Amino acid sequence: MDRNALIQDNSNEPNSVTRDDDQQVSRVRKQGLNTKCTCKRNAKLLLYIGVALTLLLALIGLAVSISEAQNNASLKEDLLNAAQKISSLEESTLQNVSSLNKKLANTIQKVSVLEVAIFNHCLGSEPDSPAISCQQVLDCNPIASQGYYWIGTADEDVKLQFCDMERTCGGVTGGWLHLISLDMREFGTSCPTGLTLRTHLGKKLCGKPQGASAEGCGSVLFNTIGEYDKVCGMIIGYQYGNTDSFRAQHISIDGAYLDGVSLTHGENPRHHIWSFAAALDEVGTYPPSNCPCISGTSATPPLVFVGNDYFCDTGSSSRFVSNRFYGDDPLWDGAGCESTSVTCCSFNNPPWFYKQLSASTDNNMEMRVCANRVGVNGAEDVLIEQIEIYVH
């Protein structure tokens, strides 16, 4: 190789090195730029992560605050409920204590009364020391239970009588002597002496011996024991035919002055206690036969000795039918009144009546079942199913 060629080859070596260096520098610069971009992206990502973590922590804090608030509200509600329960328990306890105190006071009072009753040896507990009335038993022993006591006087037969110490009638509670009880619906019950058994539509009833084809009264006597000045009771019956209430040919208490039931005491003279009238019908087919308790009616008024001491009712809700038994609507029960006679369902508050006598009496009581007219329209009658009478 000649010298010139060697020189040319040597002259080319620096240029080759320079190109290699430039390429390397270029690669380094590119890597640096890439690294710088990557760092910027990572910084942004970290910023976003930081913001997200901050928001997350804020949300967690908010959730914790809400939970604590809810827990506090629930705790507050629980405390209020507990306080209310305690208050209710205190009130209930106070009421129970008050009730126990009242019961204790009543018990002490009853024991005291019983001690007095035992000390006084109250009448009525033995046949040789009878009381003259149920009220005398109650006066001696205010906590006397209802039941049977020996009632009578020295010149009368002493009998074991039922005293109702719980019944309230006319504002009077206790001390009522049970005079008579009859319920024909009960098995084996028979009509009292003076009345005759009648059967209509499967009902066993008691009527006057003359039947529906003749006027008159059937009489039943109730023997009383001791004196009384108050009467309380009820009578339930049924209408047969064209009953006429107080429209009658008789004007005396001793006659059939009504179609219905007359309750009196004594016999010469009779003294009126209560009347139970049976009218014709609800629609006023014949006004004189209506109940006088219907306002604005031309019904026959009760006689003077009756006054306002009566019940009036009818079993016929439409125009009457001759010779018919009205078994669907009982008389004097305070129910079943139509619009035309609704006042009669409240007049004197049936079915129970109360009568304060003008003076005490020991007269026997009489119940008469009467029918007073038999005309061209057919028969009439009143039939009895229940009787309940007390005296005081």
Reconstruct the topology from this structure.
Layout: H1 3-120, H2 134-140, E1 147-151, E2 159-164, E3 168-169, E4 172-173, E5 176-183, E6 196-200, E7 203-207, E8 216-222, E9 228-241, E10 260-265, E11 271-278, E12 310-313, E13 325-331, H3 342-346, E14 353-361, E15 365-371, E16 380-391
Parallel strand pairs: 11-12
Antiparallel strand pairs: 1-2, 2-5, 3-4, 5-16, 6-7, 8-15, 9-13, 9-14, 9-16, 10-11, 10-15
Overall description:
The longest helix has 118 residues, at 3-120. Helices cover 33% and strands 27% of the residues. The chain has two domains: 24-100; 180-391. The chain is an alpha+beta fold and 392 residues long. The chain has helices at residues 3-120, 134-140, 342-346; strands at 147-151, 159-164, 168-169, 172-173, 176-183, 196-200, 203-207, 216-222, 228-241, 260-265, 271-278, 310-313, 325-331, 353-361, 365-371, 380-391.
Characteristics:
single chain, 392 residues, alpha+beta, seven-stranded antiparallel sheet, five-stranded mixed sheet, 3 helices, 16 strands, elongated
- How much is the radius of gyration in Å? 52 Å
End-to-end Cα distance? 171 Å
Order of helices and strands: HHEEEEEEEEEEEEEHEEE
| Global outline | elongated
Structural class: alpha+beta
Query: Total number of helical segments?
Result: 3
Total domain modules: 2
Most strands sheet: 7 strands, antiparallel
Oligomer: single chain
Portion of residues within helices = 25-40%
**Strand coverage percent:** 25-35%
List how many beta strands DSSP finds: 16
Low-confidence stretches: 1-17, 110-119
Could you report the average pLDDT, rounded to the nearest whole number? 79
